[in-house]
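Example complex used in Figure S2.
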Amino acid sequence: MAGDSSDIPLHIPDAPHRPGDESEFTDWPWKPEDLGMLEMDCSAEESSEHATGLVRVLGDDNSASGKWNPNLSPEDLKMGLEYMLRLRIFDDRMMKMQRTGKLSFYMRSFGEEAVAIAQTMALETQDWLFPTYRQPGAQFVRGRDMVSMICHCIGNEEDNVKGRQMPVHYTYKEGRFISVSSPVGTQFSQAVGVALASRYKNLDEVTITWIGDGASAEGDYHYALNFAAIFKAPVILNVVNNQWAISTHSNFASGLQNFAIRGIPYGIPSIRVDGNDFLALFSVTRWARERASMGLGPTHIEVLTYRAGAHSSSDDPSRYRPHDENEYWPGGDPIDRLKDHLISIGEWTEKDHDELSEKLDSEVMGAYKEAVKFGDLANGPYPSSDAIFTEVYETPPWHLMEQWEEMKKWRDE
Amino acid sequence: MPNMNMVESVNSALDTMLSNDEDVIIFGEDVGYFGGVFRTSDGLQEKFGKHRVFDSPLSEGGIAATAFGMGINGLRPVVEIQFADYIFPAYDQIVNEMAKVRHRSGGEFWCPVTIRTPAGGGIRGGHHHSQSPEAQFTHTPGLKVVYCSTPYNAKGLLISAIEDNDPVIFFEPKRCYRGPFYGDPHNVPTWGGHPEAEVPESHYSIPLGQARLALEGNDCTVIAWGAMVHVCEQAIKDSGISCDLIDLQTLVPWDKEAIEESISKTGRCVIVHEAPKTSGFGAEMVASIQERCFWSLESPIERVTGWDTPFPHTTEWDYMPGPDRIAAAIAKTQEN
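Predicted assembly (749 residues):
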């Protein structure tokens, strides 16, 4: 029977809720007991249940259970909590600085603090991190000083990237935290190359990288999965599905509402994990690291979370989604969930938490005051503008030398 | 000293660098087992092993990204983009990533990648096997751009490119792989007996940024790169005018001393390239020469280039600059 296609409109997807809508989400059906451990040498197909389900350890009652429970010590959990809380307080302080004109721009990790912190804690110190701008928290795990981070965000005299990049585009080679780039997705395919170089040199180094749900529509995402699978790269490929790419809902990034299973047809074992569950993230990443280290190749992970804040200081999400949508999202808050778990096992109290918050707040303020001694955005001192011309090449060629002289003439006269 | 064609000399450069430096690794489409569609990596996988010379998926963007990652993690990848026409899926990785990572990371990371790519027309390749996109890369700070023309300079320049700690786009004029091309498609010689085909087996290098004076004369400076160097040689002979022929070899950074010295002697200049005229690298040369050498110039600078159209298939000889057009331009510079 011939159909009449004349009344079929062009299909354009939409976000689940828009400003003025009630934010309604169905409760998660997934429980910590649902999924067993996967064999290290499992095939991509054998990971199907883990890709379509959700690995959780922290249940709705904040207890830790299930086969993926990493059984971390209370000390490790408290360290994770401290890093996450430090990041949230740091972000809030930096956002205030941006609002008062002390930073040109800022991006918070609000609601996603567990992602980089739990995952980096699950790795070894020799492992390479190839982040986006939403994983700065990994630097705390690798020991970066907040003063140096703030100096970068200001772009002052002590900025290690010399005033060349926007705030939050950190580079920290000492901590094997590779330079953040604004074009989204490029790091994903590059990380495979980093991992292959480590394998070529026969080093026990694993590379972890992240990409957003939105950027997973870029070619680089697909290049990465394909190259990683073909060459069995020791790489951990994370799609952080925080559901929003500025105003673009993940419905515009994929025809499926599951990002994890896209790894399976590439031949990569794939897992979806509760991205606000510190313990589940740690455990899945540890498993992926072991596989990579054993020469079993890449793991593809969808980290299911929610971008609780704005994309950046230039963004106002209430223009395109209900202002309180994050409060209704069933994944909760990663800091509250770990805190409540620690309280439930008798290792933490509200008082401990308040004291830690105060301590961190004063550390952040102290770091800020220290950082502005090296220059603030309004008055400098900034890095020398000579840095426009240096490190474009290893040695500036003659045409840069000529232009540099010309710049100096205008600047200095 | 052995006589090599350009395929053999490129192969010899790769062989030399694979032998000299464990960090050199080669990959690209068809470059491994098969040795490349132009045979430039013939025998290298067998000699050095699959882990050093291997095939990649058909994914120029993925090739560039993977090379980037290897480069910042201590290797010195040499990758092939099978035809320069196919480099554009890799453009973002080259322009926004390779070219900028040293600068953007405050010098903490750098990317010593060499991207080799056969370029240019004259092989009946139509518009997607004939383009010469050098200007799309000369406009990007952080890249070096090299265009070889003979077996001898192909090896010496390629070794320099691989040893360089910055990313280098290395164009190989595919029309000249097996012989110099003088603009007559019915009479294409081989490299046999050509002095520029005497290529040492061992390591040698030609510094990037240095031009080659291919012919020496007094009355006009002809500047070219790639296959056009040989076409210009023919045109100069045909014109009967005494010319310096400068084979630029490196476009970024180009050799200002060689150009200034020659123009101050001849006072006249013709620039020749296969790529389209508008915003071609010839435009940069014209602008720079008038800035630097205006008072030496006796006549307007002439450009002879491909047309601002897609590259044709069966009619390519009416597209590529030939000896007649170039000789006429040389003659025109002598008019006043």
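The mean pLDDT of chain B is 97. The longest strand of chain B covers residues 269-276.
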